[in-house]
Write a structure and sequence with these properties.
Blueprint (H helix, E strand, L loop, with lengths): L7 H7 L18 E2 L22 H7 L11 E3 L16 H6 L8 E10 L4 E9 L4 H6 L2 H7 L2 E6 L2 E10 L7 E10 L5 E11 L2 E8 L9 H17 L1
Antiparallel strand pairs: 1-3, 2-3, 3-4, 4-9, 5-6, 6-7, 7-8, 8-9
């Protein structure tokens, strides 16, 4: 999400759930990565709205979370990069698959930050990107309809097939449009890998927050984390 799924996830599927470790994110990218695959255009941007001016690098940096913005116990982290593109086996699920990618076609990737909490058990990543024209709307708008139709899909990770379950999350609203998504993977037994993703759009900017709670009880912290991320992002995007 840095909505990306750590490369070790696919390996864990073929080895043992006991060796599983996962995180989203990558090294902090301060400049404009653009490009890759996976942009979905199921929902078009409203034709009556003028194209927003892309966010500046300064705005994106100002809108990303830092350790100082988080509750006590969170520390800065750095997760391995993964620029994999995911293709869902169901067209209606592709906007969700695209949401799991670090790179998005047409986007300039701005500030990225990774964090660890709960003595390293919880992982958090926050990424801000911007688009020219109506690209931000084109990226975020299809997610809502996808959540109404998509309950799960299959993708290939590191050459290993994986089946993901998709659920709509009730998350704090932020910006002009926002969505909460839970994407999970059964690792066998009582173990499950789950990404909690909150994506928000303000003008030409998009915020993606990815939270991986280490325990089911830690999942309750998502609302607070998403509120902090959303408020900081929107303030910077409007500045």
């Amino acid at each position: 999400m840095r909505t990306r799924i750590r490369r070790g996830v696919a390996v864990a599927l073929t080895v043992s759930a006991l060796t599983f470790t996962a995180a989203c994110g990558g090294s902090s990218d301060k400049g404009g990565d653009s490009a890759a695959k996976g942009k979905d255009k199921d929902a078009a941007a409203p034709a009556d709205k003028p194209a927003a001016t892309p966010l500046t690098a300064e705005q994106m940096k100002a809108g990303v979370l830092t350790v100082a913005d988080l509750p006590k116990g969170w520390t800065a982290s750095k997760n391995p990069a993964d620029d994999s593109a995911y293709k869902a086996d169901k067209p209606e699920c592709q906007p969700i698959a695209t949401l799991l990618q670090n790179k998005v076609a047409g986007a300039t990737i701005g500030a990225n930050e990774d964090f660890a909490g709960g003595n390293g058990a919880n992982q958090l990543s926050h990424q801000i990107m911007t688009f020219p024209g109506t690209g931000a709307q084109d990226f975020v708008a299809p997610i809502g309809p996808a959540l109404d139709k998509c309950t799960g899909f299959k993708v290939t990770m590191e050459g290993v097939p994986a089946e993901l379950k998709v659920e709509k999350l009730t998350a704090p609203k932020a910006g002009e449009e926002s969505h909460g998504v839970r994407v999970s993977m059964d690792l066998g037994g009582a173990m499950e890998f789950a990404l909690h993703v909150v994506v928000a759009r303000q003008g030409s900017g998009v915020s993606r927050l990815v939270y991986i709670p280490g325990t089911p009880a830690a999942a309750k912290d998502l609302d607070d984390l998403a509120t902090r991320a959303g408020e900081k992002f929107v303030k910077a995007a409007q500045g």
